[in-house]
Amino acid sequence: MFAPALLQWFDDHERPLAWREPGTTAWGVLLSEVMSQQTPVARVEPIWREWMERWPTPEAFAQASPADVLRAWGKLGYPRRALRLLECAAVIVEEHAGRVPGDVDKLLELPGIGDYTARAVACFAYGHNVPVVDTNVRRVYRRAVEGKYLAGAASRSELAKVADLLPEEDGPRFSAAMMELGALVCTATNPKCGACPLLSTCAWVAAGRPEPLPEELAKKKVQKFTGTDRQVRGLIMDVLRNAETPVPLTDIDLVWPKEGQRTRALESLLVDGLAEQNSDGHFLLPQ
After folding, report:
1. Burial classification of residue 223, based on how many CB atoms lie within 10 Å of its CB (0-12 exposed, 13-18 middle, 19 or more buried)
2. Buried (b) or exposed (e) across 231-253, using 16+ Cβ within 10 A?
3. What CATH architecture is 16-126?
4. Domain boundaries in the chain?
5. With CB atoms 3.0 to 4.6 Å apart as the test, which of 9, 29, 56, 66 could cross-link to 125 if both were Cys?
6. Collapsed DSSP state (helix, strand, coil) of residue 283
């Protein structure tokens, strides 16, 4: 439909992301996709490079301790992703001889790998022409093809819709281009329509760039980070990551003034397996 124009634009505007470099393995692609969930690319790239140098294969990573993994994860956020990656690597080694599978269904069987990540790995690491639909792709499709504002949760029907757009050749590159266009040009607010390669065929532009309906503008309330349990969890994790030995509760008490919230955050870290308490009552990263 609009593949030639989009691919030409991508040739000129593709960002030089670390995991797009020639020779990147399927393991490298999988890491990049998990790390990039709800995390800006600029924060991911240096951590991704460090991980690939330290743990270039699933076998190498599977031998790491949870504590080492959590320290290396740093402040990427949502550290449970790191522990799920460790589980994932162990299964890859045990059940796939250390090779990241390329089949979507087999990828979905891996711990912590959801539908989007499975399709992204199959597409970008193995060149399978399968639809890869994230929020950016959904927004581009909704505007360029349907002429409407993106609203509502993702649905399985969107996979079939995007699949119909995939060209027989260069399908994976087309998928990457759709994502890039949504990230750089067809943004959620203030889209740069004048710079869009789909301007002449965009259904949303043809319809006069209609404003969203009131119900489409209604957004789920997003809790601010400052003052939340998530912030307190992060502060406690900082203490544990930076400590060479188990720390007493008095050290943790210093990170946040509200005792009830601090206790709740610490208990949740213990439940999530992100922290442990030893026989002396001190706290440490999981070993």
Report:
1. exposed
2. bbbbebbeebbeeeebbeeeebe
3. Orthogonal Bundle (1.10)
4. 16-126, 135-217, 229-275
5. 29
6. strand
CB contact at 8 A, 252 and 266: yes
CA atoms of 42 and 20, how far apart (whole Å): 14
Note the Cα 73 to chain centre separation in Å: 14
Q: What is the mean pLDDT of the chain?
A: 93
DSSP assigned state of 247: B
Looking at residue 17, its amino acid is L
Question: DSSP H helical segments within the chain, as ranges?
Answer: 3-13, 26-35, 41-54, 58-62, 66-73, 80-96, 104-108, 115-124, 135-144, 157-163, 171-184, 203-206, 214-217, 229-242, 249-253, 259-271
Whole-number pLDDT of residue 217? 61
Clarify whether 146 is annotated catalytic: no
Residues in CB range of 219: below 8 A, 6 or more apart: none
* CATH code reported for the domain at 135-217: 1.10.1670.10
Residue 284: helix, strand or coil by DSSP? strand
Task: Write out the two tokens for 203.
Answer: 């259904």
Q: Which residue has the tokens 């994230």?
A: 134
Please pick, among 33, 50, 59, 244, the residue that the annotation labels catalytic: 33
Q: Which residues of the chain have pLDDT under 70?
A: 214-223
In this prediction the pTM is 0.90
- Based on its alpha-carbon atoms, the radius of gyration of the chain, rounded to whole angstroms, reads 22
Smallest CA-to-CA distance from 229 within 237, 221, 239 is with 237
